[in-house]
Protein: DNA-3-methyladenine glycosylase II
Amino acid sequence: MLIHLETQADLDDAIHKLVEQDRRLRPILELTGMPAIRQREPGFAGLAAIICGQQLSTASAAAIWGRVSTAFDPFHHDAIRKARADRLGRLGLSAAKIKTLKHIARELAEERLNLDVLANEEADAAHNTLTALPGIGPWTADVYLLFCLGHGDAWPAGDLAVQEAVKVGLGLKERPTPKQMAPLAEPWRPLRGAAAHLWWAYYRVLRNREGVIAGAK
Structure:
C-alpha cells in the first residue's frame, strides 16, 4: 500500500502509526515532538535544485540554484536541454552537473522519463529508476522521492544525519552503513519516509545537546 505525505496531517498520522508498529520509536517522538513536514517543488525543477546542491554547503547550493532558476524562468527541461554548456557553467554548475541536467532534460523531452509517475511506484522501484540516470546517486533519488513527491516509503539510507540518529536512537555501537540501514528500516515499511522525518528531528535534538556532529547536513 502506497502512502503519500502531502500535508502535515498526513505526516502526523504516519508518525502515530509508526510508533504503534515499533514501540522503540515512542521515546524518540517524546523527545522530538511531531516533526514538521519537509516539501520541495516536484518535477524537473525540484530534481534540478537537488542536483545543483549536491556536495555543496546550503549557502552555496542556494546561491547557485538562485542564479540558475532566475536565468531560466519559467524553469523547463527544454530550456536546459537547449542551453549552451558554457552559459550553465558561468552560473556556477560543474561540468558533471551540466551533463546530468542535460541528460535528464533529453529523457523528459523524448518522454522516456516521467518524474511524476514515480510517486505511485513502489519506493524501491522508483529509487532504481532515478539512480539509473547518470549523476543521480541514492541520496539524491531518495530526497526527490520524499520531499518532492511525498513518497511515504522513501528511505534515505545514505543520509549521514539519519544514520547518526539511528545509531544513537537504537543503541548501536557504530553508525550503520547505507547497506546496513536497509534491514534496520524494514519494521517501518510502508512508512520509512515518515521514519526519516522522525530521525532527522531526533538528529537535531542530538546536535543541540552535543554540538555539531561530524557529517551534519
Notes: Residues 192-210 form the longest helix (19 residues). Residues 38 and 147 are 6 Å apart (CA to CA).
